[in-house]
């Protein structure tokens, strides 16, 4: 499983429509509106790097208003649940 964060600059008038369009693309599990230099951040979860390449180059370009993207591939996942489990080892 490949997880990636895709950061996007979007035309202001199209942020909501772009977020909805992105959420409808298979492989994108979540879309967030964010502050800072990017307008939207999407979480993609796909089987292989090739699937991520197709998602970004073949599917996302159909969403109107996206001006620029930056894709970050995740190496490891850390969650509160995982961290609590690690620190609880041997405390029982």
Describe this structure in words.
By secondary structure, the protein is of the alpha+beta class. It has one domain: Lrp/AsnC effector binding domain/regulation of amino acid metabolism (RAM) domain (Alpha-Beta Plaits, 2-Layer Sandwich), CATH 3.30.70.920. Helices cover 30% and strands 33% of the residues. It has three helices and four strands; from the N terminus they run βαββαβα. The chain has a four-stranded antiparallel beta sheet. The chain is globular, with a radius of gyration of 16 Å. 17% of the residues are buried.
Summed up:
This protein has helices at residues 15-23, 49-59, 80-87; strands at residues 2-10, 28-33, 40-46, 66-73. By secondary structure, the chain is of the alpha+beta class. It is globular, with a radius of gyration of 16 Å.
Q: Indicate the mean pLDDT.
A: 90
Domains (count): 1
What fraction of the residues are assigned to beta strands by DSSP? 25-35%
Number of helices: 3
Largest sheet: 4 strands, antiparallel
State the shape: globular
Level-2 CATH architecture:
2-Layer Sandwich
What name does CATH use for the topology? Answer: Alpha-Beta Plaits
Radius of gyration: 16 Å
The SSE order reads: EHEEHEH
How far apart the termini lie comes to 33 Å
List the helices and strands and how they pair.
Elements: E1 2-10, H1 15-23, E2 28-33, E3 40-46, H2 49-59, E4 66-73, H3 80-87
Antiparallel strand pairs: 1-3, 1-4, 2-3
Could you name the key traits of this structure?
3 helices, alpha+beta, 92 residues, single chain, Alpha-Beta Plaits, 33% strand
């Amino acid at each position: 499983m490949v997880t990636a964060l895709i950061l996007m600059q979007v035309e202001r008038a199209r942020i909501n429509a772009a977020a909805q369009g992105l959420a409808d693309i298979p492989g994108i599990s979540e879309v967030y509106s964010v502050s800072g230099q990017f307008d939207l951040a999407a979480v993609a979860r796909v089987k292989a790097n090739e699937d991520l390449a197709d998602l970004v180059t073949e599917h996302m370009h159909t969403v109107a208003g996206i001006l620029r993207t930056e894709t970050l591939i995740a190496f490891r996942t850390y969650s509160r649940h995982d961290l609590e489990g690690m620190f609880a080892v041997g405390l029982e």
